[in-house]
């Protein structure tokens, strides 16, 4: 049954869903890595494609930017379309000197100031964490590809233009690898609904060195991340 934000028919969404923030990354990844990709959603321009990877059905669907947006799509994909494995494929800013632009960061856990789940967790400081099986398979796939990869705690921020530089300093001092804006709520929702979730991120810019990936190089750098996510899902 179509939802307020997804017009796909039942059966048009695969149990495995890759979630980039950017709907055009969904289009590019589906057309580059899937066999027979077809458009299954374009409500509000949030593109979703379903195809196969090595014979396995996969949907690649935009999540939009930020946890409230991701929450809408992940909720509908899980509760109305039966998604079981959800892997975010996103960009992030590096927060440690040992990490370089183009490296991959896999989010073992995700620190936040708040999430859309705050209302139900109340006094509980729930620790959003990745599915270990997916994480292990993603690490194996990344090592096999030779992609420089870092695994650990990430920061899912509520704002891109942060007026609190002291927060980043505290995150850096506590070993946070990188900052992005969706993974924590994806992990919360996966825990609530008995799904598997993981965030595989490509470093697009560096909060300490201020280096940034030129837009001309983004696609080729993001390709490793997509392949790592697909291999983790089906290993
Ligand atoms: O590249 P995506 O997947 O959108 O991820 C990152 O980029 C956006 C901010 O520019 C946020 O969504 C952040 O999480
Ligand atoms: O959320 C994000 C994504 C990329 N780079 C950042 O600094 N923040």
From TrEMBL:
Subunit structure, as described in the record: Homohexamer; trimer of homodimers.
One example GO MF annotation: purine-nucleoside phosphorylase activity
Annotated keywords: Glycosyltransferase, Transferase
CDD domains membership: PNP_EcPNPI-like (cd09006)
Annotated ranges, domain Nucleoside phosphorylase: 17-216
InterPro entries: DeoD-type, Nucleoside_phosphorylase_CS, Nucleoside_phosphorylase_d, Nucleoside_phosphorylase_sf
Catalytic activity: a purine D-ribonucleoside + phosphate = a purine nucleobase + alpha-D-ribose 1-phosphate; a purine 2'-deoxy-D-ribonucleoside + phosphate = a purine nucleobase + 2-deoxy-alpha-D-ribose 1-phosphate; uridine + phosphate = alpha-D-ribose 1-phosphate + uracil
Record-given protein name: Purine nucleoside phosphorylase DeoD-type
Site (Important for catalytic activity) location in chain: 218
Annotated gene: deoD
């Amino acid at each position: 049954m179509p939802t307020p934000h997804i017009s796909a028919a039942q059966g048009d969404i695969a149990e495995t869903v890759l979630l980039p923030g950017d709907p055009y990354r969904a289009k590019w990844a589906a057309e580059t890595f899937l066999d027979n990709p077809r458009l299954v959603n374009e409500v509000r321009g949030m593109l979703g494609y379903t195809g196969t990877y090595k014979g396995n059905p996969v949907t690649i669907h935009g999540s939009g930017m930020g946890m409230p947006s991701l929450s809408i799509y992940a909720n509908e994909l899980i509760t109305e379309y039966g998604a079981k494995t959800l892997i975010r494929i996103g960009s992030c800013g590096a927060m440690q000197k040992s990490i370089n632009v183009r490296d991959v960061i896999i989010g073992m856990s995700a620190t936040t100031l708040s999430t859309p789940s705050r209302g139900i967790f109340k006094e509980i400081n729930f620790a959003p964490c990745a599915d270990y099986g997916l994480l292990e398979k993603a690490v194996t796939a990344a090592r096999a590809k030779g992609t420089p990869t870092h695994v650990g705690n990430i920061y899912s921020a509520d704002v891109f233009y942060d007026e609190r530089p002291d927060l980043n300093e505290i995150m850096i001092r506590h070993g946070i690898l990188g900052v992005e804006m969706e993974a924590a709520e994806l992990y919360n929702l996966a825990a609530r609904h008995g799904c598997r979730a993981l965030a595989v991120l490509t470093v697009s810019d560096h909060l300490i060195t201020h280096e940034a990936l030129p837009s001309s190089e983004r696609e080729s750098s993001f390709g490793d991340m997509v392949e790592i996510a697909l291999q983790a899902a089906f290993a």
